[in-house]
């Protein structure tokens, strides 16, 4: 069973479209994250949710809207896609207890043409 | 400002040689420290982490890292590199457990036979 799963793995879309990326974790973790990895492989936090509550919102355009219907899911919706949104988006999760690391999904490669 | 520095963008080592990847951080307190590895087209895999206690931590795949408070460093080492270790390595820190991870820019490891 995949611990943190993202769909789709690849997404190619035209500028101006609206798209969503889904993330689900079956680890029972309390906190979930979205990270963006740009073309230079730099990873940066976008959002974090704890038990469905938004706790981190870095300087991300408001075209990006995360949604957490329950603590096992954190979806990312992107409106009016732009060329600069092309990147790999990683979902991650973390438990609030214990000393485990952050678990990452395998990433969604978004290409805007 | 919080930052993580990986001074080496690329490192090339011969198979069987030893490896050290450098990581420095700038924070007032001791953060939680992590090393992740990313193979081409893949997600992020946790190699090891440091929270407290013994400053030499062992990870998967024969990797270890040493936390040095006086140098604000958390360097990753492996005594004998295998060709399959070729990948990109990311150092990351979190100020509080469960908080966002701040990543370094990554070090690309090439292994020559």
- Alpha-carbon Rg of chain A, integer: 13 Å
Quickly give the structural class of chain A. mainly beta
Output the number of helix runs of chain B: 0
Order of helices and strands of chain B: EEEEEEEEEEEE
- The overall average pLDDT of chain B, rounded, is 92
Mean pLDDT of chain A: 91
Portion in beta strands of chain B: over 45%
Task: Summarize the structure in words.
- The complex is a heterodimer of chains A (113) and B (113).
- With 113 residues, chain A is an all-beta fold.
- Chain A is built from no helices and eleven strands.
- In chain A, strands 2, 4, 5, 6, 9, 10 and 11 form a seven-stranded mixed β-sheet that branches.
- The radius of gyration of chain A is 13 Å and the shape is globular.
- Chain B is mainly β and 113 residues long.
- Chain B has no helices and twelve strands.
- In chain B, strands 2, 5, 6, 10, 11 and 12 form a six-stranded mixed β-sheet that branches. A four-stranded antiparallel β-sheet of chain B has the order 3-9-8-7, with no helix packed on it. Chain B has a two-stranded antiparallel ribbon with strand order 1-4.
- In chain B, a hairpin with a 7-residue loop joins β10 and β11.
- The interface between A and B is medium-sized, with 27 and 23 residues.
Which keywords apply here?
heterodimer, A: 113 residues, mainly beta, 4-stranded antiparallel β-sheet, 56% strand, B: 113 residues, 6-stranded mixed β-sheet
């Amino acid at each position: 069973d995949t611990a943190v799963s993202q769909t789709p793995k690849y997404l190619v879309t035209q500028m101006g479209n609206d798209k969503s990326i889904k993330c689900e974790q079956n680890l029972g973790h309390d906190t979930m994250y979205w990270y963006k990895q740009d073309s230079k492989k730099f990873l940066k936090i976008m959002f974090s949710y704890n038990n469905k509550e938004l706790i981190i919102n870095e300087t991300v355009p408001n075209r990006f809207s995360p949604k957490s219907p329950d603590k096992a899911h954190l979806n990312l919706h992107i409106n009016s896609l732009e060329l600069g949104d092309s990147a790999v988006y990683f979902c991650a999760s973390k438990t609030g207890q214990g000393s485990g690391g952050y678990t990452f999904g395998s990433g969604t490669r978004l290409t805007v043409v | 400002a919080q930052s993580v520095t990986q001074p080496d963008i690329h490192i090339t080592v011969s198979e069987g040689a030893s490896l050290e990847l450098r990581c420095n951080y700038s924070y007032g307190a001791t953060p939680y420290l992590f090393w992740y590895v990313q193979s081409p087209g893949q997600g992020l895999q946790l190699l090891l982490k440091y929270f407290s206690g013994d400053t030499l931590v062992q990870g998967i795949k024969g990797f270890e890292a040493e936390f040095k408070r006086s140098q604000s460093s958390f360097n990753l080492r492996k005594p004998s590199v295998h060709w399959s270790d070729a990948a990109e390595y990311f150092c990351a820190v979190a100020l509080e457990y469960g908080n966002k991870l701040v990543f370094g820019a990554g070090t690309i490891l090439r292994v020559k036979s």
